[in-house]
Write a structure and sequence with these properties.
This protein is of the alpha/beta class and about 290 residues long. The chain has helices spanning about 15-25, 40-45, 75, 100, 140-160, 175-180, 195-210, 225-235, 250-255, 270-290, and strands at about 1-10, 30-35, 50-65, 85, 85-90, 110-125, 125-135, 160-170, 185-190, 215-220, 240-245. Helix content is about 40%, strand content about 30%.
């Protein structure tokens, strides 16, 4: 079983579009939407939820009013101004626990806080694990790990070849949780200055964890000069360009129709994404042969 994560240094590059297409093209996989802060793969794959579980990512302070003597020590020490009128605001509380240690009456306790939900679903492209983080909630890295673990369990049970992961944007904790231990990364970028900059950042993270990267340039025709810069960067850093996808408004129409670009008539885009998947799958199989 091989794990593939589709990443991007910034949001809006087409990462989820590529993931949905790969899920359509592969005939032996489990797909995992690990962009838990802003999950949207379900908008294309239209999953039917089979299992839903609560996710507790951290703890929040709670004051027992019967024990509280209103000494104001917790209010004085809370650096997040989370305690007002001897009540803890769960949104402002960072769960540091200082107030618990400071309370002379033992009136404050740390209580598990529900941060969101995770799901196991079935789609027309097979099994899918995904999640929804609550508004203003944190610990998304833990939730990403949980979503990946569930995908792995299903893949082992169903004897699937691949786990295809839709990763979060950026280079933070959720991204690290989404790429750790995978066999290959596909970095989706676009020919803009921010796209180039963030591609360099995400490749730096991949190099730190010694994970091979292939690059896919989306909407390459909107700025040929910047596309050339990306190709030059990839050549200089020994990165394989898996493909270049042109801009086509049909892609947006496909998403509105809840279909991948493989299921919708997207012309050359559909053909190029298919070629990208073939190159990615070949790279995954080649990596498998290296270890066999």
């Amino acid at each position: 079983m091989k794990q593939l994560t589709i990443i991007s240094g910034k949001g809006g590059t087409g990462k989820t579009t590529i993931t949905a297409a790969f899920a359509t093209l592969s005939d032996s996989h489990v797909v995992a939407d690990c962009d838990v802060d802003a999950a949207d793969l379900h908008l294309i794959l239209n999953p039917s939820i089979e299992k839903s579980e609560e996710f507790y990512g951290g703890k929040t302070a709670v004051i027992d009013s019967d024990k509280c003597q209103q000494c104001d020590e917790c209010i004085r020490l809370c650096r997040f101004d989370a305690i007002k009128d001897y009540t803890v605001d769960p949104i402002s509380c960072e769960g540091c626990g200082v107030c618990v240690l400071a309370c002379p009456e033992g009136a404050i306790a740390m209580v598990r806080h529900m941060s969101g939900h995770w799901f196991i679903s079935h789609t027309r492209s097979g099994y899918m694990t995904h999640a929804r983080l609550g508004i203003a909630e944190e610990n998304s890295g833990k939730l990403v790990t949980l979503v990946r673990q569930q995908a792995k369990l299903i893949a082992e049970r169903e004897k699937k070849e691949y786990i295809i992961i839709d990763g979060p944007p950026g280079i933070g904790c959720p991204v690290i949780a989404a790429i750790a231990g995978v066999d290959l990364l596909v970095a989706v970028t676009e020919p803009t200055l921010s796209g180039i900059h963030d591609l360099e950042r995400v490749v730096g993270v991949a190099n730190h964890f010694n994970i091979p990267v292939m690059v896919c340039i989306n909407k390459y025709d909107i700025n040929p000069d910047n596309t050339s810069k990306i190709e030059g960067y990839c050549s200089k850093n020994n990165l394989k360009v898996a493909g270049k996808i042109l801009y086509d408004p049909q892609v947006t129409k496909a998403m509105v129709d809840k279909k991948s670009v493989i299921e919708y008539p997207c012309g050359e885009v559909s053909k190029e994404v298919t070629r990208v998947w073939e190159k990615v799958e070949q790279r995954l199989k080649h990596r498998e042969n290296q270890w066999s």
